[in-house]
Structure formats: structure tokens, C-alpha cells
UniProtKB/TrEMBL annotation, chain A:
Domain ABC transmembrane type-1 span(s) in chain numbering: 117-373
Any Pfam family hit: BPD_transp_1
Biological processes, Gene Ontology terms: peptide transport; protein transport; transmembrane transport
Name used for this protein in its record: ABC transporter permease
Any one Gene Ontology cellular component term annotated for this protein: plasma membrane
TM region(s), chain numbering: 6-32, 44-67, 120-140, 152-172, 184-203, 215-235, 247-266, 309-330, 350-373
Membrane among keywords: yes
Primary localization class, coarse: membrane
Species of provenance: Pseudotabrizicola algicola
Organism taxonomic ancestry: Bacteria, Pseudomonadati, Pseudomonadota, Alphaproteobacteria, Rhodobacterales
Family: Belongs to the binding-protein-dependent transport system permease family.
Membrane topology qualifier: Multi-pass membrane protein
Cellular location(s): Cell membrane
Signal peptide (UniProt feature, chain positions): none
From TrEMBL, chain B:
Protein name as catalogued: ABC transporter permease
Species whose genome carries this gene: Pseudotabrizicola algicola
Entry's localization field: Cell membrane
UniProt entry tagged with the keyword Transmembrane helix: yes
Keywords: Cell membrane, Membrane, Transmembrane, Transmembrane helix, Transport
Classification via Pfam families: BPD_transp_1
Domain spans labelled ABC transmembrane type-1: 129-347
Keyword Isomerase: no
Major localization listed first in the record, in broad terms: membrane
Membrane topology of this protein: Multi-pass membrane protein
Residue stretches spanning the membrane: 9-30, 135-156, 183-205, 225-244, 283-308, 328-354
Listed GO biological process terms: transmembrane transport
Family as reported in the entry's similarity comment: Belongs to the binding-protein-dependent transport system permease family.
A GO CC annotation given for this chain: plasma membrane
TrEMBL record, chain C:
Residues in ABC transporter domain copies: 11-261, 355-608
Name of the molecule in the record: ABC transporter ATP-binding protein
GO molecular function annotation: ATP binding; ATP hydrolysis activity
Keywords assigned: ATP-binding, Cell inner membrane, Cell membrane, Membrane, Nucleotide-binding, Translocase, Transport
Amino acid sequence: MEPLSWPMIFAKMVVQFWPVWAALIVTVALSLHFRRRLGLYGKLFDSTVGLLGFVIVMFWVFTALFADLIITFDPIAQISQMKNVSPGTPVPGSDQWYLLGGDHLARDVFSRVVMGARRVLTIAPAATVIAFMVGITLGLPAGYFGGKLDTGLSFIANLVLAFPVILLFYLLVTPEIRQTGVPVVLAAVLFLFPVIFVSVLLNSRYFTNPARRNLYVGAALAVGLWAYSGLAFNADPTGIWSMDPNLLNVFVSVVFVNAPTVFRIVRGIVMDLKSRDYVAAGQTRGEGPWYIMLWEILPNARGPLIVDFCLRIGYTTILLGTLGFFGLGVSPESPDWGSTIDDGRKLLSIYPHPAVVPALALMSLVLGLNLLADGLREESMRD
Amino acid sequence: MLPFLLRRVGVMVLTALTLSFVVFCLTNLAPNLEKLARTEGSVRMSDEAVLSWIENNGHGGPMVMRYGQWLGVVPGWTRTDAQGVTRGRCIQGGLTAETAPRYCGILQGDWGTSTVFREPVIKTIKDKLGATGWLMLWVMLVMVPVSLIIGVLSGMREGSRTDRVLSTFAIATTATPEYVSGVILVVVFASATTGISPILAEWGWISGRTLFLGTATSAIDQITFWNFALPVMTIALYGIGYIARMTRASMTEVMTQQYIRTARLKGVAFHQVILKHALRNALIAPFTVIMLQFPWLLNGVVIVETLFNYKGFGWTLVQAAGNNDIQLLLACSVVAVFVVLLTQLISDIGYVFLNPRIRLS
Amino acid sequence: MTDWDPSKPILEIENLSISFFTRLREIPAVMDFSCTVMPGEAMGLVGESGCGKSTVALAVMRDLGKTGRITGGAIKFKGRDLTTMTEEELRHIRGSEIAMIYQEPMASLNPAMRIGEQLAEVPIIHQNMPRAEALALARQIIADVRLPDPDRILRAYPHQLSGGQQQRIVIAMALMAKPALLILDEPTTALDVTVEAGIVDLVKELGAKYGTSMLFISHNLGLILDVCDRLCVMYSGEAVETGNVREVFDKMRHPYTQALFRSIPLPGADKNSSPLIAIPGNFPLPHERPKGCNFGPRCDYFRDGLCNARDIPMDAVTDHDRHATRCLRWTEIDWNAPAKVGKITEKLPPGRLVLKMEDLKKYYAVSSGAFGGGAAKVVKANESLTFEAHENETLAIVGESGCGKSTFAKVLMGLETATSGSIMLFDENVQDTPIQARNTDTVSKLQMVFQNPFDTLNPSMTVGRQIIRALEIFQKGNSDAEREAMMLNLLDMVKLPRAFAERMPRQLSGGQKQRVGIARAFAGGAKVVVADEPVSALDVSVQAAVTDLLMDIQRENHTTLLFISHDLSIVRYLSDRVMVMYLGHVVELGSTDQVFAPPYHPYTEALLSAVPIADTRVQKRRIVLEGDIPSAMNPPPGCPFQTRCRWKSQVPGQLCETVLPPVQVLAGGHQIKCHLSAEQLARMEPVITIAAE
């Protein structure tokens, strides 16, 4: 078979991504049709920037979802003749091509990037969610009560923020530290926050009706602690919740780096919102502080928090890439974008494609998230 | 002002102590020490031998005491072995047990010895910091003016075409981490096979094989445009986007303020409104942002020095971490944290000076 | 400029139309607006929020922002059309010929520039004056606006001045180039009444001194009467009536103007015998204006087929001085017919004692200085408050900012605990019980209505949900269905449609939100309600409706109402007893009649004189207080009011400066905290007199 020309490569890729296009078209069409009823999400479609960001992000989300349908080769299979081949080289003994060439271990760059999307888009949002829960659970009381609690928590947050991120990673993500069990301890602390958050959230709302409260909080605690035991201690008997120790280490470190910033943002918003009359109204009817924080203040802080959430997923993606770039990432086999760039950069000036392709993928995802955040910010300020 | 400064410095010292203790603990973890014993002693040491090596070289005992010794507030360890030879933390470089000082920690200027470079840590740090200083200087010189100008120009008339173009540029650069932009810059400008260099070479516009150099190793000896532009641009690009967006946000906010309308309706010309009324208020926020970006700038430095093989502070950090050089890693961390805290202090003080509302109340 | 004849109008607005353009639609803000300002004349623009009065002012300045556009008509300034001028031409007029004064003095001064620089800029730009000369001029104008120590002020930054001083600086800045026209956009709304009185006097005096014409925008009819010669009443983007101030006030010829005057509490109005008449319905949204007369749907004289048939032009009122009205039926209406009086109610006798405060004190320790350095200071927010409140009674608490009325509310509600003293609520001592420790019954019996309608409801929860939450917390109802029914009843009680239960607060108008706030406060059957300026942020026509609602509910539930306010007109209208506070002290306490008639506390006297009253029959003695309210952080020694008191010279010795006055109990339990002797107090003359008709 002949090697493919660039237009042919693009055509082949476009075809390969068909499930993504289909899903994108359906999503955008439905959203555009119902946008007047969808609140802030619907208004996003009024802004070009936001729409563009949304489409880029959803492109990668659907790519991650349908990765199995899109890939042309097993992302870790090595086909010996294909080492560092240029894009569009046909694979002997099959009717397929290495659409974006092969890497230094003769693996298909295209399939690796597609699979990498799945890795990045599971870790980054999950880590961001946990970081938000931690930041919110600590930031709310710090901002609301102020005083010594605030001073103490802010001091700790500033300690973490004074660390250059890269240094923290070099100290926290090492095989030695995994031997000492520090990541598990960190996980034990950090993963507890989501459980606390959800339980307190439900309790403060339903404590006036004990029967219902017991049901909701009980269910939340059961599921939460089950997942907690599995993720933090790998002690889930059913084995549904578990995390590879390497991954746990990376995950925990990323959460640890992000949580203080979220804490500071939440604290700032709470300090602003707590002087509102509806907060005072809650106080004068004898609401508990957690109800006021979680149900009166937090929903009204959602605008800036959603915007920051988008930005932070992007930032987390960059962080994960940084970890991969320094070889601190998950595992050498893993197709995640950061490590792939690291692998590719050694032969960068001779064979650029193994590094450039994941680099562009990462850049476009983060760009999409940033544009999305910008669109959301603009639209939420328009009210 | 003075009480504020004292309090601020107090908090800073407390932070520095806490952080250095945390770093000390993390670098002196048992597995790290075992690894150190095997590299310094012999790879095939038995587990007991490793433990006794650790004990004999002063890495035993409670963590707090060892931290105290390293800091120089607890007397250095001494140990007399079976042969009657006394060794100790402070007994080195020709000193005997009698002449050696009791304390020898960083407060006394003794930072220990690097196991990778086989020289005193303080010397390594000094040399490498110097190299990185040049890099930072150039980054700042490029980044700050460019980002402020972009931010002010786009924030001045929100929603205009200039704003759209510049904002898109700023967003794009913030979405491009150093290891991505570095790779792309090298491929475009410093690759003999791709990008613009082959074309330029073919046209005979450049004498070498590439337009820029893909490494900055030679910049240690002499900085030239051709070996330094790419590393500087790589770090600066990411920062430009970020600071420009902050400046833009601050500028657009200021432009909607009533006092800008007051100025406009006083008959002040638009450029005067910007220069006299808006700029000073708009630059207060970016100033702190620039200062608080140092922890992250250090990030960029590490990545870029690794990518371009420029043997500066970041490169040293990677070497120290990769080779389990405990003393050097510790020193690097302390220096990094210190730089960060110092910039925070400067940013606080600067903020107070820029903002009369705080200064005089 | 040279060919302008001083006998011609200085500003002529002809059929001006302004629209704002959003992505969805064009929103007309001002339609077919005309008015004329002659040299030296003060023109008032009055109307409720959203009527387009500020838009007109900004259009004169040609500063409508990106979305606003003049879609028709002309604005002629000294005969030249501003709507067709270039940016450059406009720049020469702005600041030098037309100057503007804004609502928020703090926001309109550049925080990072010294006052002197900001003032001097004007002549430097417009007259190329050298800097030193400009600064000298600035110094002189600062003295002109009667600010003390001009040299210090020249070098000061805006945040170093008080609100009243800042507004004087804004006025000084406007006068720097001796403009021919001054536009004042609600210049005193953000200020306290006693400070406002000083500013108003200054504006009038300077207007006369420099012969400046004024366009004075306000929602306050009393202020307009005080300042202006002519006025223009706006409603929903249109001028509905224009003319000479006294003629419009006494012989109005538009139903809206009439309704407006009937809904504001003028002296003589009384909640029992002659209640206010609220304007029914709501202000139309700009894109939902009715056909024909905008006021039609709310008008008593509306006639189908006539008023909603076509656009209505302004019609000149014959025999009046340039008086015109946008009403088709003005000749048919009997303007002298007395208003249909609403239901007259009996005054309920005060019931049992429900609240008793004795010698209540609340001090705060605050650290001075921005960085926490320096010694901690004690702010005495409340000093020895003693009073009682009975069932069915309305006790008004009157005072300006910093008088401690909000702190008092916080302590009473249990959000803060008292430093010393006792609070008896029903039969319980609650002074040391924070709200978390109070039992549900006590909490639900004592509730609060808040000031800011935009803040009082949680923006991300439906109206129904918020009321149901209050029911849940107060342990009312046994099931969700029961609480749902109770919530709907509460909506009925505050006269809101039941469909509002599903609405989000942003879909409600200010008055509607305030009603929801009232429903929420009464969810647990409140017996004592603290209303913290519940209507001050609402438009006048809405104020009447909300006030009456509050009165009705009070009558039905036999509630004790603690009505916190700075507005003496409304206080006189609805309260049974009045407590006047100044810097944390109760300076006067008595029944409404006692407080509003001599003898007064000197502060009450000044306060009464400062409140603008929109009634041409009222004669007021002008008492303008010097200076600003002292900071609660740094109160004066002796009598708190001594720094501004005009009676101080009549007290012998240094008594006022050194000794806190005792409380004098006069006839009928009327209490006054003052050193003046009973004879001196008895010699005081009334501030307000109503001329016989």
C-alpha cells in the first residue's frame, strides 16, 4: 500500500472520529433548540467564544467516551517495522495505516492520543471535583466564621501555595514515598471530605424531618464510606472501588495542590456573601451555620465556582502533563499525553510527530476549557 | 507600617520554618536514606549494614533533632567508633573533633555536601542560581511589558476587535504549558528537518542548520539571542497570557467605574482618561499577580531548563531529585520556598504603596 | 457659542427618543421627551426608578454607553444640537459648559488621585490654565463649597473624606469651569438627611451665585419642591406632566401625578383615619408597555377605547404657566374631588407588655489601622437603651447612619449578645441568649423584615421553597402537603398570586420581593417584628402599598412592630411612639405627637427641619447642621450631639462638652436627653407649620 498524503490522513481521521461527530451534532442541536430553558448552560450558546470552547471540550469528552471505537490499533501494541515512521505509513500485513506515524517504541501515535484522552479526562475532572469538595468544605467555615479558624486554615493553605508545584511533585510523587504510605494517609484525609460534604449537606437540609434525614444521610454515608474504603485503602471487598497505588499517588498530589486555591476562592466569596440580608434572614429564623453556608451561600457562589472549575480542569490537565513530562506520571506504558510528550522530546528535532501530536491535543483541550470558562464568565455577568 | 512589616516578616519566618521542616521530613524519609546508604556505601549491603550506616552517619535519631542539627540550633552529631576515631557532622575538611565547631547547620552557613556534584551544596546553589537569574531577568524583561500592554489595550475598550484578537491570543498562550510550547517552538524554529529552518537554510538566509539553537547549554558561558530566545520565549509566553488576562480583567473593571465616567464627562480626552485615571488603578491587581506568579515561574524554569538542557537551578533540582541527593534537594527546596516568600512580602508591601486607600488608613 | 442669545433657552430637548439595544430586542427607554430649561432656571425631573430620568441626563451628556442610542429628536444646548456633535466638540462642552454631579460621591472620585489634582484638571483641560493657578482656583472653590481646611483637602485622597465632604468635592469639581448647565443625578440619595439638607442649601446658593441652570433629577418630590422652579414628571419613559413646580404640586392635571401625591405620607395623613392610597398594579416593563397611555392600566380615570387607542401627545394646560399634560381626559376630570378614602380603621389600644429593654449596652472591640496594629478601640454601638413595647403598638426607631439602630436590631434578634443590660421578651430574659440557644417558639415569635429587596431573598431558591423552609424550621405543619397549603395561604395574606410560589426571586419586582419577605417573617406567627427600613429602597407608589400591607397584618395578628427608619414622614404616618437615636444614644422618646411637636431634642429639631416635604402649604424653619455625623469609633466627649448642636451656647459652662446629659422626663412620659432646662425646652418653636388654606 502507498503511504498516505496529508489530505488523505485528515480524511481518514475525520472518518475515524464519526461517533464523536454524531454525538456532537446531537448535543449541540438539542442544546440550541432548548437553550432558553437551560439557564446559564443555555446562554452559553449565545456567546461565540463559549460555544467554540464547549464544542472543543465536548469533542474530547466524546473522544474519551468512544475511544474504543475510534482507535485503529492497540495503543500499547508494538509493530517492529513501524518505529518512528512518519504519518500515513501503511502497516504491513494489514489494510490500515499509522495515521499519525509511530513512536520510538513503534506504537501507533493516533491511537495513543485517542486513548490518552480517556486517561486525561478521567483523572483531571475527578481530581478537580475532589479538590473542590475539600476546598469548599474548608473554605466555607473559614470565610463564614472567620477568626482563629480562618487564620489557621489560611496559614496552612498559604503553606501549600508557597511551594513551587514542581518541587511538591518531586517530593510527593516518588516510589520511596509510596513505600512509606504517605499517599495513603493523604488520601485518607482528602477523600474523607467528599463524604463529610455530602452528609452535612443533606443533614442540614433535612434535620427538621428526622425520618427522611436518616434515610438520605444513611444512604450517602453507606455509599461514601464504601467508596472511601476502596479508593483510599484499597479495602473494598467487592473490588469495584480501587485505585492503582501509582495512580493514587498522582491523584492525591494533584488534589493536594489544587485544594488550597479553591479554598481561597470559596473563602473570599463567602466573606462577600455572608453580609447579605438573606443570610441574616436565615440566621434570624435560627438556621444552623452549615445550612446557611451550604444552602444559602454556596448556591449563590456557583457562578465563579463553575468558571473556576472549568479553568481548573485545564490546569489539572497541565499538571498531569507536567508530571508525565518529568517521568513522575502513572506508568511508562500509559498513553497519557504528558508522558508521551516526554518520550517524544528526546528525538524531537528528527522525529517531531510523536511529541507534537499529544502536545497539540493537550493544548486544544486546555484551550477549549479556557474558552468555555471565558464564555461562562461573560454570560453569567450579563445578568 | 512598621508593625505590619514586623508581623508579616514574623509570619514569613514561621512559614519558612514549617516548610523547611516538611521538606526535611520528606527528603529524609527512611527509604530515601536506605537508598543513600546503598549508593554511598555499597549496593549489596545487607539490611543490617544499611541500618548501621544510617545510624553511623548521623541519620538516626528523632527527625526533629536531625532537623535542628541541619538548621544549626542543635549541636552536630559526633560518634566515636571502635577504633577511637571520632567522626561528626561538623568534623570535616581537616577539622578534628577538638577544633570543630559545635553547631554547623545552615544558620552557620554550612549547607552540607552534594552527592551528585561532589562539592559543597552552597557552591552549587550559588552557581546555578546565577545562571537561572539571567534566565529570569530576560523572562521578566519580555513578559511584564508585553503582558501589561496587551492587557491594557484589550481591557481599554471591552468587546472591540483589538480586544477580541488580543484576548484570544492571551487565552491561547495560557492554554499552552511550557512543555508544549517548548516542543512546538523547537520543532518550528530549531529543527533541521521541520519548521522554517530547512526552508531558510535552502534559501541561504541562515548559515547554520537551524535558525535558533535547540539547546541552551552554551548560554551558561555566553548568552546570545540565538541560544536564549527560545527558552525565554517558552517561559514568557505562558506568563504573558496569564498576566495579560489579569490586567485586562482589572482594566475592564476600572473602565466601568464611575470615576472614569466622571473623568470622561469632565471633558478629559480618551487617552488621558486611560493614562491619568485608569492605568494606576488598573495596575494594582496585576502587580500582585506578577509577584505571586513566582512559584509558578519556578515551575516553568524547571521545565525549560530540562527541555533546553540549560544547567541552572531548575536543572539542578531535577538532578538532585533524580539522584537522591538529599542535601542538595533540601537546599534547593529551601531556596525556592524562600524566593517565593520574599516575593509575597514584596507584593504585599508594593500593594500597600500602590493603593493609597490602604496606605493612609 | 457667540451667537447665542441669553434670553433663549439654555437647553431645549425636543421629542427625544432613546433606546437600548440588547441581543434580543430594542428596549425603548425614553419616548418623545421634550423639555426646556431657561438660563438660571432649575428644572426638576421626577419619577420612579426605571422611568428614564437618568437616561435623559446621560443623553444630554451624550454618554449612553455602547448599547444606548438616541433614536430620534434633538437636544439643543445654547442652540447647538448635541446629538450631531463629534466626540471632539463634545469634549469641549463636557465639564466646561455642562457639568454633572452623581449619586455616589465615593464612586465618582478617582481613589488613586489627590483631590487637588482632580479639581485642577478641569481648568487645565478647558482653559489651558497653568497648574499652580488651577490649584489656587481649586482651593478657592473648595472654600466656596464650605469645606474646612482647604489646603489639607487639596492634598487628601477621596477615601479620607466623609460622604458629605466627598459630595461637596464633586460639586466643586462641577463648578471649576463655571458651567452654564449643571446636571444633578440624585445627588443626595446616598447621604443622610441632615447632610442632605446642607448639600441642598449649597446647591441652591451656588446656583444663584453663579447663575447656573440646573437639571435636577430626583425621586423625592419634597426635594424638587425645595430646589426647583419647574419640573417634569416622568412615567415609564415619557414625560407625563410638566410645568411650574407650585402649579404642578397644587393643580396637577395628570392622574399619575395625582396618584403619586396621594401615595406619599404628607403631614396630616394618618394610618387609621386617612390612610395612603397606593397606586394599584405595577410599573410596566419597558418591552411590555400598553398601547396608548402607559399609565392607563393603573389609572382610575381610564376609559377603554379612548386611552388605549393611540399614542397620546402632550397637551398644553390653558391659563397656566407653560404647563402641559399627557392626558386626553384632563379637561373632563374633576381635579378637586376628594380622594376615595380607603377603609378607615380604629386605632387598637396597646395590649400587654411584650418587650422591655433596660439599660442595654453593646460595645465592640475593633482594632484600628488596616494592618491590625495599634491599640484596640471600643466602639460603643449602643449606650444605655431603655424602653418598652406593647402588643398592637408600632414603635419607630429613627436615626441616621451610625446611630446604632442596626446593632440594636442584631442584639434583639440574638445575632449578637448584649454587653450589659437586660432584654425581656415576653416573659423571658434573652439578653445573653444567642439565637442558636433560643427555643423555636421564641425565634418564630420574633422575626425581622429586611431593608434591601434585592438582597432579602436567596436568589437561587424559589419563593415557595423559601417560605416552606421557614415553616419547616419553625416546626409548623405536619406534612409537606400541609406546609405547602400554609405557604399558599401566606402568599394570599401578602396579596401575591399563588403562582409566584414557583418563581425565582429575580422574576419579582422590588415590592413583590418585600412582600415575600414579610410572608416569610410571619410564617411562624410572629408577635414582634423588627422592620429595618422595609420600604426605603422602594419607589414611593410601592411604598404605600407595602406599608399598608404591614399595617393590615399587624392589626390582624396584634403584632408589635419595631419600625426602624430614617424617614420621618413615614414614621409620623404609621408609628404610635418614636425613639430618636444619635450615635448609640436614645436622645428622645415619646408618643408620635410628642416627638413631632416642641419641645424637641435639638437633634430631632434639626432632623425634622431637614426632611423635605412635598407640600406647598408647609412652612419650615431652616436649621442646617454644620459638619458630619462623628464616627462611632471616635465619639465626642459629653453629649454626643454637642459638635453640631445650635443650642449649645445656651447651656452654661462646659456642661455639654464634658457631661453626658441626663434623661429629662417631661409631661406625658416624654423623654429628652439634653442639658437644656425645662423652661428653655418649653420655649422652643415648632419647626413645621401648615399654612391655612
